[in-house]
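agent: user wants the full assembly modeled, not chains individually. Plan: 1) parse entity lines 2) check alphabet per entity 3) run joint structure prediction 4) return tokens. Steps 1-2 passed, two entities, 356 residues total. Proceeding.
--- entities ---
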Amino acid sequence: MFKINYCNQCGGKTAFRIAEGEDRKRDVCHDCGFIQYLNPRIIVGTLPTYQGKVLLCRRAIEPRKGYWTLPAGFMECGETAADGARRETMEEAGAQLTDLHLYALYDVPMIDQFYMFYRAEMLSGDFSAGVESLEVELFALTDIPWGEMAFPTITKVLRQYIDDLPSGHFNLVEARIG
Amino acid sequence: MFKINYCNQCGGKTAFRIAEGEDRKRDVCHDCGFIQYLNPRIIVGTLPTYQGKVLLCRRAIEPRKGYWTLPAGFMECGETAADGARRETMEEAGAQLTDLHLYALYDVPMIDQFYMFYRAEMLSGDFSAGVESLEVELFALTDIPWGEMAFPTITKVLRQYIDDLPSGHFNLVEARIG
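--- prediction returned ---
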């Protein structure tokens, strides 16, 4: 995930080692013994649709600046996953959603991330680019810019949606990526 | 979640404040400006069954030492959620599982946790208490010690299982606790 050098409790130097009672290497403080655990983080996102079109955002920030994505971001403390997905959609795409349906769970263990995507209908055709988006646009499913997608998770959930659409059955999908 | 006092990158003092470009208070380093994000953590667990009985562990550690729980713990970096659930079941209950089926997702925003429970059949009747368990036992569903359960999430997923059992339909449940 990233390198830890100091204890966030006492400011002492840490070492990446197996502490007593632990079964794997972690960042352990030389001075106070505090273990700074790192755990996978949850990315919550949505697949917002309106009149058969899907809402995509073009990223204004790295990584993958300039590429298209669905509204998604790190789940925050104190919120539910669905609330986080709603919040990200408002922040990045200025769009309000009706019923959210959990649709895809993707493990991405190589980067310690766990993705949760919700399908949702937009409350209206209103949307606007937030500070993390260069532009936001409704795309017909035949016009999705597949060659300019930001992340494999985004491509995967959109392809799943297109596969499921004819049947109208959107069963929850679980997959590992990478 | 817990209090951060020092930057884990440079060892400088941190302050809980809104950094430039952020929309909420976070732990920001006075010296190098590094933001130490805290995000909800995923708890992965299983509801292991064998010949109609369910496997419970009596906790050997705080919190709720001496109370009964299902095998569950923090998802680790580098693993999938299902792998983590399998690992916790082996570590705490010494039990091997066959097919895992995702069964319950619980948001517990008050303590910044997100629970994922899998149903699973045990590969055999073998099990044994790991270091975090005082004892492990197979319980008939009529004998579950409801008054001695460790956490509300555990009670909830067990009650759901008992509700679903007669129909044989174990649809994924999503709920918020607290």
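agent: reporting back. Helices of chain B lie at 81-93, 152-164. The mean pLDDT of chain B is 97.
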